[in-house]
Amino acid sequence: MTPSPAPRSRQELVTQLAVACLGAGVVTTVAVAQGQNPLTALGITLFSAVAAVMVGQVL
Prior knowledge:
Blueprint: H1 10-33, H2 38-58
Helix pairs in contact: 1-2
């Protein structure tokens, strides 16, 4: 049985989430500029940022 990796620090997770939100926010800005509902775009941004951080933790 292999040992599980040490948990990441809270600061590292917050940094990863901030970077993921910034990246997703660029695409969201374009979508809103083309007429998408801002609340829908914000929901998609938050979901994609959280998903990116979760995948990053697994890999």
